[in-house]
Specification:
The complex is a heterodimer of chains A (145) and B (790). Chain A is built from 2 helices and 11 strands, in the order βββββαββββββα. Chain A is mainly beta and 145 residues long. In chain B, strands 10-14-15-13-12-11 form a 6-stranded mixed beta sheet. Chain B has a 5-stranded mixed beta sheet with strand order 2-4-5-7-6. The chains are: A mainly beta (145), B alpha+beta (790). Chain A binds chain B through residues 30, 32-37, 43-46, 49-53, 83-85, 141, and chain B through 413, 416-417, 420, 663, 710-712, 750-752, 754-757, 759-762, 765, 767, 770-775.
C-alpha cells in the first residue's frame, strides 16, 4: 500500500494515499472564515463547486506554531462518510510503499496526540519514526478531550 | 431475495395504495365507483398481488388475491356496489396495507393473519349472498372523460416501454435472420420478449392484443421445449407476427378493432401457425414440397406470404388448437386476406368505432375509446382529421419519461455553476475602463443573464411535481381520524395541479399532517356540539394550494371552534413562555402564533391524536427549514385558517449582501422586512442588561449586533452609523445591526452539511463571483440564539 508522509511542526505523520482526493497549495486558495466556535476550523473553500471545510490539524493537535509558508498545503481527504474535508499541513515529505507488517502498534505513552487518532507507528528508512494517523477518526471532528 | 428489490416493491406498493385510497375515498360518499375506476382498482390489486408474489411476500399476496377476485366480480357486474360494499373494500385495503407492513417487517402474526383471511373470505361470501348480480352503474360521459385524461398519463409510460420492447423483438429476429445468432439460441430470448410484451400490454388496458400474443407465445413455447425446431422458417414467421402484432396494438389503441375483426385476425394467425407447423413438419424430411418454396424465402414480404399461403387448406394439420377453432368458426380461407386488407388500411371508417364500443359493455374498451378520442382531438387540429390514429408512437411521444432525481440535481448544479460564472463575468466587466467596450460587453451579458434565468426556470420546472402528490395521503388520514374522533368531516383539496418543488414535498408532509390533526382534534367540534351552535353537523376541512408571485401558498381552513386565544395566552404565561410585558407588545397575529410555541397545547385532555404540544412547533421548524413562514387567522366558532407560505424552490434564492467589518455575509431577501439607518430617539435601553430595543412605529424590536455574534471587529460601534435590517422569523422580529448593505444578488444555495455540519448562525454557503465561498446567514438560528440569552 502507498502512504503519504507529511510534516506538522517537525513531526512526521502518515496517511494512506487512497484517502487523498487532492492536494492544493495553500497560498492559491481563498479560504472564507467561518466564525465557528471550533478554532481548528479554518474556513471553507470552493473546490470546483463543492463547499469544503478546512481543518487546521496543527490547532487540533495543539501545536502552537501555525505559521504559513510557501510549502504549506491543503490535503483534501475523502472520509469514510464520503465527506470531503481539507487538512492544513506544513509540507508533504514523501510517498512510500509499505508492507502492512512494518506497522507497529503505538506505545500508550510518549505520543503527543490523542491515541484514538493513531493507527500505529511506521519506521522510515532513515531510522525516523512516523505516526500512522487514523484520518477518519481525526476528521470525525468531535471535540478533543 | 434481495432486499433492494423488496424495497423497490414497497415503494411501488405505497404508490398503488395511495391510488387505491384516493379512488375509494372519492367515491365513498356517492356509493358507486365508475367502471374505469373499478378497473383501475382491480389492476392495482393485481399488480400488488403479482409484485408481492415475486418478492416472496406470500401472505400479503394471498390476502390480496381474495380481494382481487372480489374486485373481478365487481368488474363483471356480479356484485353491485353500494356504500357498504365500498366501505368493505376500504377496510380490506387498510388490512391489506397492515399485512404488507407486518410481513415486510417480518412481524406478521400467523394466527392473526389466518383470522383476517377467514374474515375476508366470510365477508365476501356475505356480500355475494346479499346481492343479486346486476350491472355496474355507469357514469356520465363527462365524468368518464375526465378520468380518461388522467389515464393517458400512465398509458404513455407503458406505451413507450412497449415500443422499446417491439424494437428489441425486431432486433432479435433480425439477428437471427442475418445469421448473427443461432436460431436455437434465440428462441428463449424471443420467447421472453414476447412474454414481456404480453405482460406490459395488460397495463395498457388492451383486451384483444394479449390474446393474440398468447397464441404466439404458446407456439413459441412448443419451440422452446424442442417439440418443434426454431429455424429460419420459424424466424420469418416471427418477423411477420411481430409486424402484425404491432399493427394490431395500434389498431386496438385506436379502437378500430371490434370483436369480429379481431377474431378474423386471430383466425388468420392460427392458420399461419398451422402452416408453419406444416412446413416445419415438412422440413424434417429432406424433400421440400415446391408449393412452400416461397414461404421459405427470407426476402419474401409478409403480405405476400399471407396471400400466398392463406388459401392453403388447414384441415391438413392436426394441431389441436386449430382443430378446436374450426368447430366454432366459419371457414376462414376466403376471409383471412380480407381481414388483413382491413387492417392494413389505416383509414378504417371511424363511424364504426362508437358503435363497437357501445355494444361492448367492457369498461376497458371505453377507456381506450376515450383515450383515443382524446388523442384524436389533438390530432384533428393539426392534420385536418386525415388520420384518426392513435399509435403507440404517438402515445409515447406525447407523455413523460422517468428521470432519476440525481440527474436533475446534477443539471441543477450545472445551471448553478453557470449562474456563478455569470456573476464572475459581471464582476469582471466592472474593471473594464474602456467605456465603449464596457457597454458592448455589458449589453451582451444582460442577454446572457436573461437566458440563464430562463434556463434555470426550465430546469426548475422539471423538479416540480403537482400538489396531488402531497394530497394523495391526506383523505385517507382524515377519514381514519374522523372515525376515531367520532366527527363528521367533509374534506376537500383544491389546486391539485399547482406545482411544487419535489424536494419540498417530504418536508411538507409532517407539518400538514400535524395541522390537519389539530384541526380535526381541536378545531372541528363533534356533531352534537356543532348542532347546538347552529352549524351544519358535517365539519369542513379544506386544503388549497396556489402560486403567487414566487411563492406557493398552502391554506388549511376549517370551520371549527377557532383558536381560543385567551386560553393560549394564559398557558403561555403559566409556562413562562412569554412575560406580561411581552404580551402587551403582541399583535393579534403574534398571539395566535403562540400555538406554534413549543410546549403549548390548549387541549384539555391529551388524546392519542394530538395534544402533547409537540406537534405545532414541529410545524414551525419544518416550514422554516423549507424557507417558508406561517400565518394564522382564527375566529371564534367560525374556524381557523392556517397559511403556509413557501418559496418556489430551495436551490436558488435572492440574497442581500451585508457588510460586517470587512466580512461579507448574505441575508436571504425573503426574511427581510425593512432596513433603516436608526436615529438616536429610536433606540431604547431596557431591563437590567440595558438591552437595546428599536422602537419602530410603536413596535419594539430587539437589536442583535451581528459583529458581536460572530466576533468580528466592526467598522462602526455606534448604531446610528450603521444599518439596521429588520428581519422576521416565525413569531419574532429582530433588527440585525450591520455596517452596511451592498448589492442584491441571486445565489445558488450549497449545503454545509454535505461535507461538514451545521454552523450556528450560518445556514448554508454559496459560491461568489470571484470563486470564493459566501456565507448565508441563518436568520432563524440567530433569533433563537438571541432569545436563548446570548
Amino acid at each position: 500500500m502507498e502512504y503519504v508522509v507529511f510534516k506538522l511542526n517537525h513531526e512526521n505523520y502518515t496517511i494512506p494515499l487512497e484517502k487523498i482526493k487532492e492536494i492544493l497549495v495553500y497560498s492559491q486558495v481563498i479560504i472564507t472564515e467561518l466564525f465557528a466556535e471550533e478554532a481548528w476550523i479554518k474556513g471553507l473553500i470552493n473546490l470546483r463547486g463543492e463547499v469544503i471545510p478546512i481543518v487546521d490539524l496543527r490547532v487540533l493537535f495543539h501545536i502552537s506554531d501555525t505559521s504559513i509558508s510557501e510549502n504549506t498545503v491543503i490535503i483534501v481527504i475523502k472520509t469514510e462518510e464520503n465527506k470531503l474535508i481539507g487538512i492544513i499541513v506544513d509540507n508533504i515529505e514523501s510517498i512510500l510503499t509499505l508492507d502492512k507488517q512494518t506497522i507497529v502498534p503505538a506505545p500508550d505513552m510518549g505520543v503527543s496526540i490523542d491515541p484514538k487518532y493513531i493507527d500505529g507507528l511506521i519506521k522510515l528508512n532513515n531510522e525516523q519514526m512516523t505516526i500512522l494517523l487514523n484520518i477518519d477518526s481525526v476528521l470525525k471532528l468531535e471535540e478533543p478531550a | 431475495m434481495s432486499q433492494e428489490i423488496r424495497d423497490f416493491f414497497m415503494e411501488e406498493a405505497e404508490e398503488l395504495f395511495d391510488n387505491l385510497h384516493s379512488i375509494l375515498l372519492k367515491n365513498e360518499e356517492a356509493g358507486e365507483i365508475s367502471p374505469e375506476e373499478v378497473d383501475s382498482i382491480f389492476r392495482d390489486m393485481h399488480t400488488l398481488k403479482g409484485g408481492a408474489g415475486s418478492v416472496e411476500l406470500l401472505k400479503f399476496s394471498g390476502y390480496t388475491h381474495h380481494l382481487e377476485t372480489f374486485m373481478d366480480m365487481v368488474r363483471n357486474g356480479e356484485i353491485q356496489l353500494d356504500s357498504k360494499v365500498i366501505d368493505f373494500i376500504i377496510e380490506s385495503v387498510s388490512t391489506m396495507h397492515d399485512i404488507l407492513e407486518e410481513e415486510y417487517a417480518d412481524e406478521l402474526d400467523e394466527a392473526e393473519y389466518t383470522k383476517k383471511l377467514q374474515q375476508i373470505i366470510h365477508d365476501i361470501e356475505q356480500i355475494k349472498k346479499g346481492d343479486a348480480p346486476s350491472s355496474v352503474s355507469h357514469e356520465t360521459v363527462e365524468k368518464k372523460e375526465k378520468k380518461v385524461r388522467e389515464k393517458i398519463q400512465i398509458f404513455g409510460d407503458n406505451a413507450a416501454e412497449m415500443i422499446d420492447l417491439f424494437e428489441e423483438l425486431e432486433d432479435e429476429i433480425e439477428a437471427v435472420a442475418s445469421g448473427e445468432i443461432e436460431p436455437s439460441d434465440a428462441i428463449s430470448v424471443i420467447f421472453r420478449t414476447i412474454h414481456t410484451i404480453k405482460g406490459a400490454s395488460q397495463f395498457l388496458n388492451l383486451k384483444y392484443f394479449p390474446t393474440y400474443l398468447h397464441e404466439v407465445e404458446s407456439i413459441l413455447d412448443n419451440a422452446r421445449n424442442g417439440d418443434i425446431p426454431y429455424n429460419m422458417t420459424f424466424n420469418d414467421f416471427m418477423s411477420k407476427v411481430a409486424e402484425h402484432a404491432q399493427r394490431l396494438i395500434d389498431q386496438e389503441l385506436n379502437s378500430s378493432v371490434d370483436h369480429d375483426s379481431f377474431h378474423e385476425e386471430l383466425e388468420s394467425l392460427k392458420e399461419e401457425i398451422g402452416e408453419l407447423l406444416f412446413v416445419l413438419e415438412e422440413d424434417k424430411p429432406e424433400e421440400e414440397p415446391p408449393a412452400f418454396e416461397l414461404f421459405d424465402e427470407p426476402t419474401q414480404s409478409a403480405e405476400e406470404a399471407e396471400k400466398e399461403t392463406a388459401p392453403q387448406p388447414f384441415e391438413l394439420f392436426d394441431e389441436a388448437q386449430t382443430a378446436q377453432q374450426m368447430q366454432n368458426t366459419e371457414p376462414v380461407k376466403p376471409e383471412a386476406p380480407v381481414a388483413f386488407e382491413l387492417f392494413d388500411n389505416d383509414n378504417t371508417p371511424p363511424e364504426e368505432e362508437p358503435k363497437a364500443s357501445q355494444a361492448d359493455v367492457s369498461s376497458v374498451q371505453k377507456v381506450q375509446e376515450g383515450a383515443k378520442q382524446e388523442a384524436v382531438q389533438s390530432n384533428q387540429s393539426k392534420s385536418d382529421k386525415k388520420k384518426k390514429v392513435l399509435s403507440l408512437n404517438k402515445a409515447a411521444a406525447s407523455t413523460s419519461i422517468r428521470v432519476n432525481l440525481d440527474k436533475i440535481d446534477q443539471l441543477m448544479n450545472r445551471v448553478g455553476d453557470l449562474v456563478i460564472t455569470k456573476s464572475m463575468l459581471f464582476q469582471f466587466t466592472d474593471s473594464i475602463s474602456d467605456e465603449n467596450l464596457y457597454k458592448a460587453i455589458h449589453e451582451r451579458l444582460i442577454d446572457l443573464d436573461r437566458d440563464i434565468r430562463e434556463l434555470q426556470e426550465s430546469v426548475m420546472s422539471v423538479r416540480m411535481v403537482p400538489m396531488e402528490s402531497v394530497y394523495a395521503r391526506l383523505p385517507k388520514m382524515v377519514r381514519d381520524l374522523a372515525k376515531k374522533l367520532d366527527k363528521k368531516i367533509k374534506f376537500e383539496h383544491i389546486g391539485d395541479n399547482v406545482e411544487i418543488d419535489k424536494m419540498m414535498v417530504e418536508g411538507l408532509m409532517d407539518p400538514l399532517t400535524h395541522i390537519i390533526r389539530n384541526s380535526l382534534d381541536h378545531g372541528i367540534e363533534k356533531p352534537e356540539e356543532r348542532y347546538k351552535k347552529g352549524k351544519p353537523e358535517i365539519g369542513k376541512l379544506i386544503i388549497s394550494a396556489e402560486q403567487e408571485s414566487g411563492n406557493i401558498i398552502i391554506s388549511i381552513r376549517d370551520d371549527g371552534a377557532g383558536i381560543n386565544v385567551d386560553k393560549v395566552i394564559q398557558k403561555a404565561l403559566d409556562n413562562g413562555a412569554i412575560t406580561h410585558e411581552e404580551l402587551s407588545n403582541m399583535s393579534a397575529q403574534d398571539k395566535l402564533m403562540l400555538i406554534f410555541h413549543p410546549g403549548l397545547s390548549t387541549a384539555e385532555s391529551l388524546t392519542d391524536v394530538s395534544g402533547r404540544g409537540v406537534g405545532m412547533d414541529v410545524v414551525m421548524n419544518n416550514i422554516n427549514a423549507l424557507g417558508g413562514h406561517i400565518r394564522v387567522y382564527s375566529k371564534k366558532d367560525k374556524g381557523t385558517h392556517i397559511q403556509i407560505i413557501l418559496p418556489l424552490t430551495l436551490a436558488i434564492l435572492d440574497g442581500l449582501n451585508v457588510l460586517i467589518g470587512d466580512k461579507k455575509f448574505i441575508l436571504p431577501l425573503n426574511a427581510i422586512v425593512e432596513s433603516l439607518q436608526p436615529q438616536r430617539h429610536m433606540i431604547k435601553h431596557v431591563g437590567e442588561n440595558k438591552k437595546e430595543i428599536l422602537m419602530l412605529r410603536r413596535e419594539f424590536i430587539p437589536i442583535v449586533r451581528l459583529y458581536d455574534f460572530f466576533n468580528i471587529e466592526p467598522s462602526y460601534n455606534n448604531l446610528e452609523e450603521g444599518m439596521l435590517i429588520v428581519i422576521k422569523t416565525a413569531n419574532h422580529k429582530v433588527a440585525l445591526f450591520v455596517d452596511d448593505f451592498l448589492n442584491q444578488e441571486q445565489i445558488v444555495v450549497k449545503s454545509l452539511e454535505k461535507n461538514y455540519k451545521k454552523i450556528k448562525g450560518i445556514g448554508a454557503a454559496t459560491i461568489r463571483g470571484d470563486g470564493s465561498i459566501g456565507l448565508i446567514l441563518d436568520v432563524t438560528s440567530i433569533v433563537e440564539m438571541y432569545k436563548g440569552g446570548r
